[in-house]
Amino acid sequence: MPMLQSIKWQDGSVYILDQRLLPEKIKYIKCTHYKKVAHAIENLSIRGAPAIGIASAMAVALASINLKVSNSYMLLKKLKPVFQRLINTRPTAVNIRWAVDRMKNLIEKNLNLDVSELKDLIINETLKIQQEDIEINRKIGQFALPLFKEGCTVLTYCNAGSLATGEYGTATAPMYLAKERGIKFRVIVCETRPVLQGARITAFELMQAGIDVTLITDNTAGALLRKGIIDFAIVGTDRTVRNGDVANKIGTYTLAVLCKENKVPFYVAAPLSSIDLSISSGDMIPIEERASEEVTRLKGVKIAPEKVKVINLAFDVTPAKYITAIITEKGAFSPKHIKYINSKKSEKLRLKL
Q1: Any idea which positions bind substrate (predicted)?
Q2: I want to staple 59 with a disulfide (CB 3.0 to 4.6 A). Which of 37, 116, 232, 327 is the partner?
């Protein structure tokens, strides 16, 4: 099992593992104000769609306990700017809005409570969201586990691991379960430029768990796929929409196209909280663009000419046609059927991997 938690609530404060420092240093940031949590989301101290959803819920809890108000109606009024601040931190990942909306709905349904009782309810809901995420990830892992045959080699990208979630991870959940069951397999991890989440975080956490890991540069993936070394690829998602298109870390689309070209199955691990059925197509997903320094500097060292123009998209969209299946806590589904995920027919549409 993973040894580190990405985020925890302790004695009325939020502690966030500063993932910018991994793997060299393990340090938690103590947050006593919601603005510090919001900043940690923006600067990638905490990242990964489920984890920043949990962080957003905890930020609402922090804000609520710091507000001195006489009644629950006033608490809701004072929290509205907090909701918006959190939603604005990172626009592509739908989990932030999902978590904020869940907290907001909880408050609106319990305005009859004394304000101290409501604050306790908010804190408990935050902890419930985190625990649910752990259970959801394990279910995703169970549905994806049949993919892991003895001696297989799996390719993954960026970090959809335990440090991107409450625990287990999404794409890495079946890896941890396969390890627990004694299945021998190898994971090839793409470094994931420009912030190197694959090299710094995924390789680190899988090695901590005793999993066989090989690190490659992003542009090595195509050569390995062509040689037939990879049995399948599995990645996470920051937002999956109604037609089965998937937004994930920049470079995911490239990898999916390479998998399709080389007839290698490409799977996406997607908790329901990351599925946005309000959007019909991936073309409508807002794509975050980050600072040019992430590309022109590496750990503070300049690696590009001064004032060079930079395009630094944080995410790209992989069209549904390149995805073999989307694996959720309800099971695996064809991308074209993801729009039925919340309907009664979903059980009949579930794929057997």
Answers
A1: 47-49, 90, 197, 248-249
A2: 37
